[in-house]
Amino acid sequence: YLSVLRDLLEKKKKTIRAKDKYEQKRKLIRYALGKGFEMEDIGNSINKCED
């Protein structure tokens, strides 16, 4: 479940155009929420992707 989420976020991150990291993170969160993932899992996955 989490590996699928991370893969989706990594792919989406390459296609997102954002002014700054805050906007990029917000767009990734909206995208993942729309796919049905939970906010807690999304936040953890985004933080791991940034490391």
From TrEMBL:
Keyword Cytoplasm part of the UniProt annotation: yes
InterPro entries reported in the protein's UniProt record: RecX_HTH_3rd (IPR053925), WH-like_DNA-bd_sf (IPR036388)
Any Pfam family: RecX_HTH3
Location, primary (coarse class): cytoplasm
UniProt domain RecX third three-helical: residue ranges: 2-42
GO terms under cellular component: cytoplasm
Keyword entries, A-Z: Cytoplasm
Protein localization: Cytoplasm
Transmembrane feature ranges: none
Family: Belongs to the RecX family.
Protein name, UniProt field: Regulatory protein RecX
Organism: termite gut metagenome
Lineage of origin: unclassified sequences, metagenomes, organismal metagenomes
